[in-house]
Design brief:
Elements: H1 2-17, E1 34-35, E2 49-62, E3 65-79, H2 83-100, E4 105-106, E5 110-122, E6 130-142
Parallel strand pairs: 1-2
Antiparallel strand pairs: 2-3, 3-6, 4-5, 5-6
C-alpha cells in the first residue's frame, strides 16, 4: 500500500505543477514538461523541464493509525540568458502552486495532511546559460 501512495502522491503533485502555464499570475510556462522520471540537465532538450521523484519515507505510529512522511524532490531545469532569474520565477511559481491548496487528493479520494518545503537550492549560475533548481518537500499523509 505504501508504494501505491508514493506514486499516487507524486502523480498528484505532477498534476498540480502542470497547471503552471504562464497565464494569470504565473511567470513560467512549464508546457506540460513535468515528469516522474529522474533526468539530468544534459538529457533535457525542451526547457523549462521539471522532474518530480519520491525519495525516502518514514513512519510515525500512533494508536489506531500511522503517519507516512514522504520525501519528494522537484528538480527544475531552465535555459536562459539569465538562468538565475528564470529559476527564481519558476521556483516561485512552483511554491505558489503547492501552497494554493494545502492538501492534495490522491488515490481515489485520499488526501495529504501537510506539505512542507524543507529546502530550495539552485546551481547559483554555475551551469549558465543552463540553470538547475531543486525543491525538497516532505508530504505527510495517513499511511
Amino acid at each position: 500500500m505504501a508504494g501505491k501512495a508514493r506514486s499516487a502522491i507524486t502523480n498528484a503533485i505532477i498534476t498540480e505543477l502542470k497547471k503552471i502555464d504562464g497565464s494569470g499570475s504565473y511567470n513560467t510556462d512549464l508546457a506540460d514538461n513535468v515528469t516522474n522520471k529522474l533526468v539530468f540537465w544534459d538529457e533535457v532538450n525542451d526547457f523549462p523541464y521539471v522532474s518530480v521523484v519520491p525519495t525516502s519515507e518514514t513512519r510515525e505510529y500512533h494508536p489506531g493509525f500511522k503517519w507516512g512522511f514522504l520525501g519528494i524532490t522537484i528538480r527544475i531545469y531552465v535555459y536562459d540568458e539569465e538562468p538565475n532569474d528564470a529559476l527564481e520565477l519558476a521556483l516561485t511559481d512552483i511554491e505558489t502552486q503547492l501552497e494554493a491548496d494545502e492538501t492534495l487528493t490522491y488515490d481515489t479520494g485520499k488526501t495529504t495532511e501537510q506539505i512542507s518545503i524543507l529546502s530550495i537550492t539552485t546551481d547559483e549560475g554555475l551551469l549558465a546559460p543552463y540553470g538547475v533548481g531543486e525543491i525538497t518537500l516532505e508530504v505527510r499523509y495517513q499511511a
